[in-house]
Amino acid sequence: MTAPVRRAGVFAALCTLSLVVPLFGPRVGAAVAGSVLLGAYVVTGGPLFDLLAYPGDYEDARLYGVITFVLAGVALGLMATAASMPQTVFVGTLLLVGYGNLGEQLVRLRTDDAIVRVTGFCLTGVAAAAAGQVATHTLIATTAPSAIPTLVFLAASGALLGALLRDVLLRSDDPIVVLTVGLLLWLLAELRPAVATGEIAIALAVTIAFGYASYALETASIAGMLTGVLLGLVTIVLGSYSWFVVLISFFAIGGLSTKFRYDRKQTLGVAEDNNGARGSGNVLGNAAVALVAVLGYAASDAGFLPHEPELFLFAFAGSIATAMSDTLSSEIGSVFERPRLITTLEPVEPGTDGGVTWQGELAGLVGATVVAGLAYGLFPEIELVGAAVIVAAGLVGMTVDSLLGATLEGPVLGNQGVNFLATLSGALVCALLVLSFAVLG
C-alpha cells in the first residue's frame, strides 16, 4: 500500500469520527475534534508525521493539512449545531470527501486514466455520503424510506462538485472542498426536493451519458463534463426533464458549433483551446445564471420566495437563449468575412473582442429561435408571445456580450465574466418583459 493511500485512509477514518456528533452530541464531537487538533499540532516528526504530511508541511514541521481539514469539519459542525444545517449534510459531506479521496487513491494503484480516477472518487463518495446520511438519520431516529432517493441526489450532487473541485484545486485544498460541498448540500436540502427512486436513477443515467458523450466528442474537458453533469442533474430534479432539454440543447449545439470549420478557426487564430473542449469556467460562465434560475424556481415553488415560479422559468429560458445566440454567433460568424467592431462598425481582425459579422448575427437569431421553439413546445406556461420575448431576450443578451467585449473585456472583465453578464442581461430582460406584459394585461 502506497503512502498516498495510507494517508487517504487515515483522513477517511478521521471523517468517520463525524458520526460522534449524532451519536453522542456536539459536546463530545467538539472534544474529539479538539483532541485531533492537539495531536496534529504536537506531532512534528516521525513516522506518524510522514504518514499524514503533505509536501508543504515539511517546511515548518507542522501538519497544516490535517489541522485545516479538521477546522473545516469543525466549521461545518458549528453550522449543524448552531444553524439550520442538517446533521445528515454535515456527516455526509465529510464522509464523501474522505472516502471519495480514498477511492480515488485506490484507483490510482491500477491506472492513471483521469476519467477512471474521477469515477472512483464519485462512486466511493456517493456510497459513503449516502451511507453516512442514512446512519445519521438512524441515530437521530428520523429515517424515512421515502427520503432515500433524496439522500442519493444530495450525495451525487456533492460528489460531482467535489470531483470538479478536486480536478481544479490542489490535493491540500480539501478544506475548501469540504466547505463548498457542505454549503451546496445544505442549500439543496433546504429546498426539500421530492424525487422517487426510479427518477433519480434515470436522472443520473441521462446526465452521465450526456456528460460522457461531451467528453468523448471532445466538446468538454473533464472539468467541463463534471460541471455539465452537475448542472443537468440539479436541473432535472429541481425543474424537470423539459428544463433539462432546453439546457442540453445549448450544450449539444453550442459544443458542436465549436467544431464547425475548426481548421479555418485555427488558421485565423480564433479557435477554442484544447481542440474546442470547453472547461468548467466556460460552462459556468454560460450556465451559472440558468442554475440560479432553477434554484429560484424551486425556492419559489417551495414558498421561500414571494415571486411566481414561472418568472424564473422565463429567466432561465432568456439566459439559455443568450448563451446559445452568443455561442453560435461567435463560432459560426468568426469563419466568414472580416468582422466589424460593434461600437464603431470599423473593420477589425478576426477574434477581436466585440467584432461582429452579419452571418454571426443571423446564426445568433437562429440560436435564440431554437431555444424559444423548444420552450414553447415543452412548457404550457410559454405561449407564442412568451416565445417571442425569449427570442428578443436572447438577441439583447448577445448584443450586450458584443458591447462588453468591445469596451470592457480584457482590462476589466475576462471572457467568462462577459458571458455571465450577458446571460444575466438576457435573463433579466426576459423576466422583466414578461412581468410588464402581465401588469399591462
TrEMBL record:
Coiled-coil annotated spans: none
Record InterPro entries: DUF92_TMEM19
Entry annotated with the keyword Membrane: yes
The keyword Transmembrane is annotated on this UniProt entry: yes
Localization of this protein: Membrane
Membrane topology listed for this record: Multi-pass membrane protein
Stretches that traverse the bilayer: 63-83, 114-135, 147-164, 176-194, 200-217, 229-253, 283-299, 356-377, 384-408, 420-440
Pfam family, one: DUF92
Main location: membrane
GO (cellular component) term, any one: membrane
Top-level taxon: Archaea
Keywords of the record: Membrane, Transmembrane, Transmembrane helix
Recorded family membership: Belongs to the TMEM19 family.
Matches recorded under PANTHER family: TRANSMEMBRANE PROTEIN 19
Listed name of the protein: DUF92 domain-containing protein
